[in-house]
């Protein structure tokens, strides 16, 4: 059993639609903490101070929000985006966006030292180039999770969509590692 305190959610990436066209140039002109450069990228970036998140907003009303560590913080960020839109006279009366989690990133420690050279040789679906990056990339395809593994036992898990999926993937990872090391 994995110690849940040893693995923390560090980023949740979500998408949604405001179901309303958004005038990005007006947003960029009126609102602080926005960046909009349509020649380089078609979306507007809005940075929210509390909770500390960023969102990409597209003229179609599609939104991608990143940086939150809980779904509650995702909701707070979306509320702030909707408030910002009200300031430029886009009223989304009582609109509650349907949030889709795209990715959950977690990090922590599995409490054991790892021989990355040995793992790279024994496990399938790994990438390890220690001259370029000190971590081993391991894809746990059946659980749709990708791990960065470090020799000190620190890990980063990405590709999952919930805390439960993260914990299942970490438990499976530990089982696999114990069988190999």
Task: Describe the overall structure.
This protein has a 10-stranded antiparallel beta sheet, covered by helices on one side. It is α+β, with helices and mostly antiparallel strands. The chain is 27% helix and 33% strand. The longest helix has 18 residues, at 163-180. The chain has helices at residues 24-30, 71-87, 116-122, 163-180, and strands at 7-17, 34-36, 44-48, 53-57, 62-68, 100-109, 126-127, 136-140, 145-149, 154-160.
List the helices and strands and how they pair.
Elements lengths: L6 E11 L6 H7 L3 E3 L7 E5 L4 E5 L4 E7 L2 H17 L12 E10 L6 H7 L3 E2 L8 E5 L4 E5 L4 E7 L2 H18 L1
Antiparallel strand pairs: 1-5, 1-6, 2-3, 3-4, 4-5, 6-10, 7-8, 8-9, 9-10
State the secondary-structure class. alpha+beta
Largest sheet: 10 strands, antiparallel
How far from one another are the termini? 18 Å
Shape by Cα distribution? elongated
Range of helix content = 25-40%
What do the pLDDT scores average to? 95
**What count of structural domains?**
2
Low-confidence stretches: none
SS element count, helices: 4
- CATH C-level category of the largest domain: Alpha Beta
Give me the side-by-side strand order of the main sheet: 2-3-4-5-1-6-10-9-8-7
Strand fraction band? 25-35%
Radius of gyration: 20 Å
- Strand segment tally: 10
CATH architectural arrangement of the largest domain: 2-Layer Sandwich
CATH homologous superfamily title of the largest domain? TATA-Binding Protein
Order of helices and strands: EHEEEEHEHEEEEH
CATH-defined topology of the largest domain:
TATA-Binding Protein
């Amino acid at each position: 059993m994995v110690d849940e305190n040893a693995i923390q959610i560090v980023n949740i990436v979500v998408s949604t639609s405001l179901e309303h066209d958004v005038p990005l140039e007006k947003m960029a002109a009126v609102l602080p903490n926005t960046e909009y450069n349509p020649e380089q990228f078609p979306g507007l970036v809005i940075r929210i101070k509390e909770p500390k998140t960023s969102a990409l907003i597209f003229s179609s009303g599609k939104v991608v929000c990143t940086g939150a560590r809980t779904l509650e913080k995702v909701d707070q960020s979306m509320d702030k985006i909707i408030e910002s839109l009200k300031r430029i006279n886009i009223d989304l009366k009582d609109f509650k966006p349907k949030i889709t989690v795209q990715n959950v990133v977690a990090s922590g420690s599995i409490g054991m030292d790892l021989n990355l050279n040995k793992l790279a040789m024994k496990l399938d679906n790994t990438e390890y180039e220690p001259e370029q990056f000190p971590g081993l990339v391991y894809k746990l395809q059946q659980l749709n999770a990708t791990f960065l593994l470090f020799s000190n036992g620190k890990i980063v898990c990405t590709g999952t969509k919930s805390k439960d999926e993260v914990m299942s993937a970490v438990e499976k990872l530990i089982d696999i590692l114990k069988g190999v090391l």
